[in-house]
Amino acid sequence: MGETFVLSESMEDYLETILNLIKQNGSARVTDIARTMEVAASSVNESINRLSARGLVEQEKYGPIKLTAAGREWAERIDCTHQIIYLFLEKILGIDPETADRDACAIEHDLSQKSFKAMVDFLLANGHLTEQSCALAILAKKEEADGMAAKEVMLNDLAVGSTVEVVKLTSKGALKRKLMDMGLNRGAKIEVKGKAPMGDPIEVKVRGYSLSLRKKEAEEIMVREV
Amino acid sequence: MALNKTSRKETEVKIALAGNPNSGKTTLFNELTGSRQHVGNWPGVTVEKKTGHAFYKEYALEVIDLPGTYSLGAYSEDEVVARDFLTAGQYDLVLDIINSANLERNLYFTIQLLEMGVDLVAVLNMADEAEKKGIKINKHKLSQMLGAPVVETVASKGRGIENLLAETIKNRDLTEPALEINYGAEIEDLITEIAKLFMEYDFTNQVNHRWAAVKLIEHDPEAVKLLEREVGSSKAKKIKSLIAERELKAKDDFDNIIIDKKYELINKIITESVKAPAAGQEPENMSDKIDAVVTNKYLGIPIFLVVMWAIFKFTFTLGDPLIGYIETLFEVIGGWAGGLLTGLGASPLVASFITDGIIGGVGSVLVFIPNIFLLFLAIGILEDSGYMSRAAYIMDKVMSKLGLHGKSFIPMVIGFGCNVPGIMATRTLENKRDRIISILINPLMSCSARLPVYVVFAGALFPNHGSTVVFSLYLLGIIMAVVMSGVFNKLLFKGERSHFVMELPPYRFPTAKGVFIHMWEKTGAFLKKAGTIIFSVVVLIWVLANLPLGVEYASANSFIGHFGRFVAPIFKPLGFGSWQAASSLVFGILAKEVVVGTLGVVYAAGETGLRTVLATQFTPLAAYSFMAMVLLYTPCIASLGAIKSETQSWKWTLVTAGYLFVLAWVVAFIIYQGGMLLGLGA
């Protein structure tokens, strides 16, 4: 979902602030955000519009700002990364809380997945984290996503007999429409039934009937094994 | 539904058949209307329009067979025709023909109809096939969920037709509200806003407004056109940019969401109303077994070639003796009429006009009947049995390299027999682009009428290499077809991509009724549309060959002779600048084999002495150049008539006639001048 694009540091800070305000006060208003982050209300408005365009926050006119599901996920990930860095600096390295917090703020945006995992493992081994920590959920989710991404292939690469599910169509316009109209939309189960004697086109079974398509067209269909 | 239903006599009912291809729609249409059918065209397009009549008790039903489509989008002529008809609302009721053995995909079409607000009876056709697959449909539940009456039929066996007619009459005034699918907050809010803008902009078109809004959100080009027509382009632009703006914010493309929601609904309907064997528990599938042989890696191509050979043999070996009978019959009639006319004191010119011009003209149309009849019998069987799709599947790799579709192969093969049925066989191609290109290059397949020309010339000038020369000409035709197909793909249809996303329907036994109706239709269409053109040109050429009065038929002093003399210089660089050669090419437009007869007349040699004369008049190089010209130049009038009737367009007919003449000239020029340079002119 949200992971496909990047956000600037300040945008991430906004998301984090909104999340914390909602946690503390039950809602986040422009004025509260401006006060917490020590910026002008006008720049808050501008940033909120940008976040809203990306579907991360929602705001009724003059109402409080709400996080969308994607926005909340993003904010929680940043917030959790912050906590892990802070714990690592304070508990393991013995840095004073104020410096640890300030450094965590600076590092949280750029921390690699690898370092994050190493920190989490180290904290776990030394008893500073519980199994319920937000970090474990984030790591599990990331691994699942990586695992799935690895198994995603294009339909034309499959051997006869494979059974797969459509992930998405990469084509546009008339071909995409035709494929969807023939029942090859997301989630559709496909069985590769055969290849023509010269190797192209291929025959698949989808939604209870047989369909043929050229390899060039199958190339536009991303699938994963089921 | 808010559409203006047709208001006629109480006992007259107008119904339309809609549904997926391979749902038995045509079979049902034949079953309902029998021989009371009329085949025409939808205005402005090449899509066939079939209408017919059915009677039930005191009611007279007019039945319109809409083109079979999988969807009601805007990406093919067929879809647009069906959709325009449905939105115009000039009908009482739609019968939505559903293949019961494949509910999931068929219901996708049904819910599109319901979403448009079309009042329909859902016809669960092929109920026997569903039964065989172990599928049980709860009709009552299905009817409840669709909000439409449901009837079961087996059209191929005539089962359930009475009941269907009764239900049709009962529901002729059905008015149900349009189906509303919940597309989720993002899209629903947008639909509400668009509906408000419709009100504000005075969008008063009778189409269902919610449906129109959904279509706009899907970026449907026809819906955009409709909107622009109704509210003007500046207001339409506002709605379009509103949609674009929302889609940018959304996490997903709107058309994805809309289709997903449709299938969600279908799956819900199926879960609640259908019992099917679990995956892996299905009874054995006959089609899969046949496919394992027919599309087998090693057997597929040999089987395909045998089928092609069988069709070719069937069409021409069986047809040619029949053509002989027709020719003899017309000779007898001509002779008899000539005798009668002379006996009545008519002048020889009038007698000749009636016997050679009129009767000969009719004869030259009718000689095509046996081939067309037999070919479409064979094609009907291939299509209805399901093999046609497999043939396309097997050949597509080769054909797609030429920018063509797998189905273009059969018209090409038939073209070697005769281009007229070859051109007519392109009807099996659904995509307009594929169809037009296949038609344009079909005349390059060297038909059997060109063979006599090769035989005479090769016999006269290449006595020791006759078969090699003839073979090289066939090959030249094929090479030119490949080249021109590439050119047309680049030139005429730039950017349009053809696809091969095609259903492979289950194998079925063709019904005799279906195949024979198909055959009658094609033959009738040829007689009516191409026949008139062929007849008129035959008569015209007769007149030109006999004027001015008193001149000998086709002689140097006839109009044709003058014309031949006038155009002969054009052919001089090709090695045959004589008026005789030029006028034989003019007569060749009647039918390519006439070239030989004409040369016999103009050289006053008769067909037997012709070889000797030709050996003195042509060098071998000029003869080869002439044969290439005969192969490639403007096709015979019968082919042109078939092209006009298939494309519904004078433009494409003239394009074919023109490009082939230019191509022939250029190729003959290269052959002759190239040969001269290589010192082959002696």
TrEMBL record, chain A:
Positions of the HTH dtxR-type domain: 7-68
InterPro entries per UniProt: DtxR_MntR_Metal-Reg, Fe-transptr_FeoA-like, Fe_dep_repressor, Fe_dep_repressor_sf, FeoA_core_dom, HTH_DTXR, Iron_dep_repressor, Transcriptional_repressor_C
Transmembrane segments: none
Protein name, UniProt field: Iron (Metal) dependent repressor, DtxR family
Gene Ontology CC terms, in alphabetical order: cytoplasm
Subunit details: Homodimer.
UniProt-listed Pfam families: Fe_dep_repr_C, Fe_dep_repress, FeoA
Family stated for the protein in its record: Belongs to the DtxR/MntR family.
Listed SUPFAM superfamilies: C-terminal domain of transcriptional repressors (SSF50037), Iron-dependent repressor protein, dimerization domain (SSF47979), Winged helix' DNA-binding domain (SSF46785)
Keywords for the protein's UniProt record, in alphabetical order: DNA-binding, Iron, Transcription, Transcription regulation
Subcellular location: Cytoplasm
Single GO MF descriptor: DNA-binding transcription factor activity
Automatic annotation (TrEMBL), chain B:
Chief site of localization: membrane
Keywords carried by this UniProt record: Cell inner membrane, Cell membrane, GTP-binding, Ion transport, Iron, Iron transport, Magnesium, Membrane, Metal-binding, Nucleotide-binding, Transmembrane, Transmembrane helix, Transport
Subcellular location: Cell inner membrane; Cell membrane
This protein's record includes keyword Chloroplast: no
GO molecular function annotations of the record: ferrous iron transmembrane transporter activity; GTP binding; metal ion binding
Gene3D superfamilies associated with the record: 1.10.287.1770, P-loop containing nucleotide triphosphate hydrolases (3.40.50.300)
Amino-acid positions noted as binding GTP in the UniProt annotation, renumbered to this chain: 19-26, 44-48, 65-68, 125-128
Family matches, as SUPFAM superfamilies: P-loop containing nucleoside triphosphate hydrolases
GO cellular component: plasma membrane
One Pfam entry name: FeoB_C
Membrane topology: Multi-pass membrane protein
Binding annotation for Mg(2+): N30, T33, G34
Chain ranges passing through the membrane: 298-316, 322-346, 358-382, 402-424, 436-462, 468-488, 526-545, 621-640, 652-672
Keyword Kinase: no
Start and end residues of each FeoB-type G domain: 12-174
Cited function: Probable transporter of a GTP-driven Fe(2+) uptake system.
Family: Belongs to the TRAFAC class TrmE-Era-EngA-EngB-Septin-like GTPase superfamily. FeoB GTPase (TC 9.A.8) family.
Protein name: Ferrous iron transport protein B
Source organism of the structure: Halanaerobium salsuginis
